[in-house]
Amino acid sequence: MPLRLLRFALSHKHPEPPMFTEHDQLGKTYDVVIIGGGGHGLAAAYYLARNHGIKNVCVLEKNYLGGGNTGRNTTIVRSNYLTPEGVAFYDRSVKLFQDLSQDFDLNLFYSTRGHFTLAHTDSAMRTMRWRAEVNKHLGVESEVVDRDFIRRMVPEMDLDCSGHSPIHGALYHKPGAVARHDAVAWGYGRGADMRGVEIFQKTEVTRIDVKHGKVRGVDTSRGYISTPKVLCAVAGSTPRITQMVGIRTPIVIQPLQACVTEPIKPWLDTIIVSGSLHVYVSQSDRGELVMGASVDPYEIHSTRSTLDFTEGLTAHMLDMFPFLSNTKVNRQWAGMADMTPDFAPIMGKTPIEGFYIDAGWGTWGFKATPVCGETMSYTVAHDQDHELIRTFRLSRFKELDLTGEKGAASVGH
User: Fold this and answer.
1) What backbone torsions phi and psi does residue 48 show, to the nearest 5 degrees?
2) Phi, psi for residue 299 in degrees, rounded to 5
3) Closest by Cα among 263, 258, 280 to 115
């Protein structure tokens, strides 16, 4: 670090203000209480204050901000989904992401890379063509490319995958990007805090007070809060919260693991995804390879990591990139993915008046952070589902009107 920069950092003349205000105690009454201090909860608080003028808002986080799935993902941002509803929804999120650094006055390290979804079979190529046509119809830049195009863009890749599963082509999504996940949470949190929202960490919700089908308040580890509206944005802890209000959902919780390598010289400037090999990888600005796979094949509320995951993932990575055989894995982690049967979220109003839900994000919640905040804040403010999330309503499962995004989920990303 240059000496001049170090002297600036240590100077008392230029103190860095705290990211958030530390509040001594909870208020007695709030217009809205948001359960969950991850990206989605903080984004909803930010847009409630900025777009709708609702500033008497309280965000409650059981642990620390961004410590759940927001801080446990692989930071991929894309909109090349399969259904028209999914494409429109995620495309709005990509557009919001592109302006967030300026909105927050905070570097989110947003980097457009281009996103390859590899196809290893003829049937996979048909799905890629299907997705490309849906994307193009809705104005999203995606195209099916052949092996030569992939070879030019990623010359380091073995397109035959060591003979195990040769690559036929890919869906190339040029706007695909990565961003710094913790900075997204901090940016939304700081923006909400500056607009009067109160954020409380290490504060657990123990009960939601419901009378005659309406929300009246919440009990917490720090006392009771009176409120007419509660937004649940807790990802893998969703079943615990919905149980408090007597709502059943089809959500199951499965671990999703990821890992990073030691920093190496930058060479991968795109995002690579293989549904057949269950691998996705990008390289961070620090040179680490950020890698993940599909969700673990069992239901468990745990964030433990396993050797089996690392062995399977690295074996498939070596199929594509044999030269990485001596690269060390530095660390691995897991999150709790809240999976739905149709691989689409559950958003909006519920049968309990004043209780709203933002859940079912499985493995694709980070990329939806801005649009979730925007649409859920509208829904809470107007007590009416935003048009972009009507297809994600909870009642669709009872109505047998599923969304069907599994073909665009590929693997856990």
Assistant:
1) -60, -45
2) -95, 120
3) 280
pLDDT at 8 over 90: no
Q: For the segment 51-95, what is each residue's pLDDT rounded down to a tens digit? A: 999 999 999 999 999 999 998 999 999 999 999 999 999 999 999
Task: Evaluate if pTM is beyond 0.90.
Answer: yes
Which residues, including other chains, have CB under 8 Å from residue 4's CB and lie 6 or more apart? none
Secondary structure letter of residue 3 according to DSSP: H
Beta strands 115-119; 169-173: pairing state: antiparallel
Predicted confidence (pLDDT) per residue in 276-305, tens digit:
998 999 999 999 999 999 888 888 888 888
| pLDDT over threshold 90, residue 50 | yes
Contact (Cβ atoms closer than 8 angstroms) between residue 286 and residue 126? no
Indicate the pLDDT class of residue 186, thresholds 50, 70 and 90: very high
Q: What is the pLDDT of residue 412?
A: 43
Which residues, in sequence order, are bridge partners of residue 348? Answer: 357
Match 């990509």 to its residue by tokens: 94
Q: pLDDT-derived band of residue 331, with 50, 70 and 90 as boundaries? A: very high
User: Over the chain, what is the mean pLDDT?
Assistant: 93
Q: Which domains does the chain have, with CATH numbers?
A: 27-72+182-250+342-409 (3.50.50.60), 111-175+252-339 (3.30.9.10)
Distance CA 213, CA 226 (A): 16
Q: What share of the chain is helix, strand, coil (3-state, %, to 5)?
A: 35, 25, 40
Q: What is the DSSP letter of 365?
A: -
Q: Beta strands 329-339 and 346-349: pairing type?
A: unpaired
Q: Mapping DSSP to helix (H, G, I), strand (E, B) and coil, where does residue 392 land?
A: helix
E strand or H helix that includes residue 240: helix 238-244
- Specify whether the backbone of 291 is left (phi greater than 0), alpha (psi in -120 to 50) or beta: beta
Contact by Cβ (8 Å): 405, 344: yes
Among candidate residues 249, 216, 245, the one with its CA nearest the CA of residue 235 = 249
Strand order in the sheet with 214-220: 205-211, 214-220, 223-226
SS3 of 407, please? helix
The full length of the chain comes to 413
The yes-or-no verdict on residue 5 having pLDDT over 90 is: no
CA atoms within 13 A on the CB side of 195: 24
Asked if 357 and 235 count as a contact pair (C-beta separation under 8 A), the reply is: no
DSSP state at residue 322: G
